[in-house]
Structures are given as C-alpha cells and as structure tokens.
Amino acid sequence: MPVNDELARKFLAVDTTALCDVDKTTRVLHSAIRARSARSRIFGPAFTVRCRDDFLGVLQAIESAAPGDVIVVDGGAREIALGGELFARGALARSLGGIVVDAGYRDMAYVGGCELPLYSRFVTPLSGTSSKLGELQVPVTCGGVTVNPGDLVLADGEGLVVVAPDRIGELLDGALAIKEAESAVIGRLDAGATLSETFALADHVAALRRGEPSALRPRRS
C-alpha cells in the first residue's frame, strides 16, 4: 500500500507501542539509536545507504531521495559522524522525512532544535571521510534489523520501527483498535476500578493454571 495522507493521519492517532502490540514480530531498531532533534515522529519510506566511516553516500542519498523519504544509513554502528548540521539543513531543503544513522552524528547545537527528525547511535565530533562511494537503495542493516528500500519507517518518543508497505494499513487499523481499548481501560481506572477487575486477572491466571489457552484482555464491560 503506498504512503498517503490518510495513513499518516492514522499514525498520528496511535504510536509505535500499539503497532508492536498488534504484531510482536515488528522490526524494532535498537534503542541505542536515539532521537537527537526537536521532533521525533517519522512516517515515510526508507531510502537506504550503506557506508563505512565515509559520508559521501549519505550526501548522495540526501540529494537523490524524494520528498518525504527517510534516509536510513547502515554505518556499521561505528562511532564516526556521517552527518551534521549541513546535511540536516540540506534534507530540510529537500523536504525529506528524516534521517536515521546507525553510526554517529554531530553539530548538536543546531540539530537539537532542528525540526527534521534525526536519529543516531552516537554523538561525536569526529566526522568520516568523503572519498568512498556508498551503496544506495540496497537492503541494509540498521539498528540490528533489515531495512529494504521502500520499507516504511515509523518513529516516535518510544523508538523506531520498520514495516513492509503492504502491511501498514492492517497494522494501523489494529493499532487504532488497541488505542480505543486502552482508552476504555483508562476510563474504568479513573472511575476507581482496579487492574485486576479491568483485565479479569483472576480468570486469566486460573485458566493458565488449568493448562487452558487464555489471553489477558480488558473486559468488554
């Protein structure tokens, strides 16, 4: 399913935790890759780059990607900066959706207040070289998971996840249902109910002790 405004609006109504609750096999990037910018929310297709200690491929990707694309950099988890203020400004000028670097980033005095969502594993002042051709639009490993060109990258304050584009519709619908159920639970808790009452905990535990299949779900009423 192609990226469109409707899908983006649905993601604004949910979060990455709900997506992971829908599908426990969701690809989640390592938590060491953290937001460095003022904004953390990302929703867009991956434009992938593989490079090692050299940022030329990242520059090429920024200049080649389409508006809304998210630059995903397999930098080998090395503590070398593969971008900084100028790359962030360049990505903003091209209306990109974000930059995710499994390596270092620098120039935090600017990046910390930048409106472009920007993630990296390290912050370091030492930059890479600019003399090696990187690989663009190939399957890469970022944050310990495989990211293919065109995979959807979604991020918020909880972290980064990657979803195959043909699954995003069903996952977002499932996440919306989960958020609605959570809202109902919050209403019951605010009204004085306990977690045990809200989730029928005793029944769930009893079923498991009997060896029966059971799922911990909120009561419907």
UniProtKB/TrEMBL annotation:
Top-level taxon: Bacteria
Broad EC category: lyase
Source organism per UniProt: Amycolatopsis mongoliensis
InterPro entries xrefs: RraA/RraA-like (IPR005493), RraA/RraA-like_sf (IPR036704)
MF term (GO), any: 4-hydroxy-4-methyl-2-oxoglutarate aldolase activity
Described function: Catalyzes the aldol cleavage of 4-hydroxy-4-methyl-2-oxoglutarate (HMG) into 2 molecules of pyruvate. Also contains a secondary oxaloacetate (OAA) decarboxylase activity due to the common pyruvate enolate transition state formed following C-C bond cleavage in the retro-aldol and decarboxylation reactions.
EC number: 4.1.1.112, 4.1.3.17
Binding site for Mg(2+): 107
Binding site for substrate: 106
Essential cofactor(s): Mg(2+); a divalent metal cation
Catalytic reaction annotation: oxaloacetate + H(+) = pyruvate + CO2; 4-hydroxy-4-methyl-2-oxoglutarate = 2 pyruvate
Magnesium recorded as keyword: yes
Subunit structure: Homotrimer.
The protein's name in its UniProt record: Putative 4-hydroxy-4-methyl-2-oxoglutarate aldolase
PANTHER family: 4-HYDROXY-4-METHYL-2-OXOGLUTARATE ALDOLASE 3-RELATED
Homology family: Belongs to the class II aldolase/RraA-like family.
UniProt keywords, alphabetically: Magnesium, Metal-binding
